[in-house]
Amino acid sequence: MTLDNFSVVLVEPKYDGNIGSVARIMKNFGFSRLVLVNPPKLGKEARAMAMHGRDIMENAVKLKSFKQLEGRFDFLVATSSVTATDKNYLRTPILPEHLSRTLEVKGNIALIFGREDIGLSNEEIESCDLLLNIPSNPEYPTLNLSHSVGILLYELSKGIWTGRLKKKKKFQELSGVEKKVLLEKFNALVDLAQKKDFDRRLAKKTFRQIISRAFISSGEASTMIGIMRKAGDAIRRNKDKASKQ
Amino acid sequence: MTLDNFSVVLVEPKYDGNIGSVARIMKNFGFSRLVLVNPPKLGKEARAMAMHGRDIMENAVKLKSFKQLEGRFDFLVATSSVTATDKNYLRTPILPEHLSRTLEVKGNIALIFGREDIGLSNEEIESCDLLLNIPSNPEYPTLNLSHSVGILLYELSKGIWTGRLKKKKKFQELSGVEKKVLLEKFNALVDLAQKKDFDRRLAKKTFRQIISRAFISSGEASTMIGIMRKAGDAIRRNKDKASKQ
């Protein structure tokens, strides 16, 4: 499955600016299929907000009613800021991170977002396969329409875009060998600088924990290995000189 | 740590509507501290977009320059849509999900977002502890300002709103002063061990990033300060001996 299996469906959006914002955030995360159910006229505001997502907006499929969604998709996912217990639905909402599992399955999936003011009707939600809820502060759970879309698309696509980052070696973690060398160099420096056994062990353990928690890159490891080695050399060299003279 | 330890900082935002949108999404996710560096006048558009987040916008701290951020926070986190290899070696970005680790530590953290058109300057990013990147389509990575904020705050708070984040035993985060001393001791060691200016700068920057990413504790900082000091002393002492004899 690719991101093209997902369509963003806006049901009766009121403000054309929001449609533009949705088109832009779709482009940011690599989605392209936009469906508009009974939308307003797309004017200046929509174009201004869409930025480089304008092609998505212009290629949007326009439908006259919610019912026309049926039969077009394998899965209909309703989104709501109101959770099950609030409204007494018989269904339990899933979280955005659960939906990213659908990346492992096949089919066309509609991510359906309701009106800015009243969201989706009970009837519309009932006709969907899943109800999705973006976790938020119960005191004010109603997100701006394009923010709801953005957060869901971010969650769905982040594995893909970070996978890409990994390929480009940006997040290339240090290898086991590099970590071993880095710890050896640091430990050697500790042995040169610190006499007390307890303090030596504490320093070594601490450095190892810090390195692990920081998820350091291969390049960073190499820089740190370099400086540890140089510092160790400087101590040794001067010691030798001092003892020779 | 609570969400109140985080401040959202907008650096020279152009459009007051965006400030309103940011205030709203902050309210949605339970954040309240907003800092505006050299903002425009907050007019009708800002109030319209802020909705129930209007109090956050009205209580925002206004600063005249980026420099005024220094000293106000324990950690400065820069955000950028441009990643390391795109620009230069000094930028190794972390992901939003990495930042949620900070929920386990103490301290005041500034989440810093740049201008709508040109983001943060290199100099501004250099003066921060961490660089954060929201994974997105490299063909069009520039998110709308309030979307960037929303996605980061969603990632930080989702554990809380889904109730999954249990109260863990917190460890004492190192203070700004301890961090300063640790960096000074390490930098002094680098200057003693490494002659080349470029390599010195790279080593210092790398260590700062590692320390920031690992969110080390006060005790760990103290251990590391001890070993850096000892190593520096060992080099200096032996140098002195060598030159005296």
Overall CATH class of the largest domain in chain A: Alpha Beta
State mean pLDDT of chain A (0 to 100 scale).
85
Radius of gyration of chain A: 27 Å
CATH superfamily of the largest domain in chain A: SPOUT methyltransferase, trefoil knot domain
Please name the two chains that share the biggest interface, counting residues whose Cβ lies under 8 Å from a Cβ on the partner chain: A-B, 72 and 73 residues
The assembly state of the depicted protein chains is homodimer
Secondary-structure element series of chain A = EHEHHEEHHEHEHHHH
* Beta-strand fraction estimate of chain A: 5-15%
Question: What gap, in angstroms, lies between the N and C termini of chain A?
Answer: 72 Å
What would you note in describing this structure?
The structure is a homodimer of 245-residue chains. By secondary structure, the first copy, chain A, is α/β, with parallel strands linked by helices. Chain A has 2 domains: 3-165, Alpha/beta knot (3-Layer(aba) Sandwich); 171-244. The first copy, chain A, has 10 helices and 6 strands, in the order βαβααββααβαβαααα. In chain A, strands 3-2-1-5-4-6 form a 6-stranded parallel β-sheet, with helices on one face. In chain A, helix 1 runs parallel beside helix 2 (44-50). Mean pLDDT of chain A is 85; it is low at 84-90 and 165-171. At the A-B interface, helix 1, helix 7, helix 8, helix 9 and helix 10 of A face helix 1, helix 6, helix 7, helix 8 and helix 9 of B.
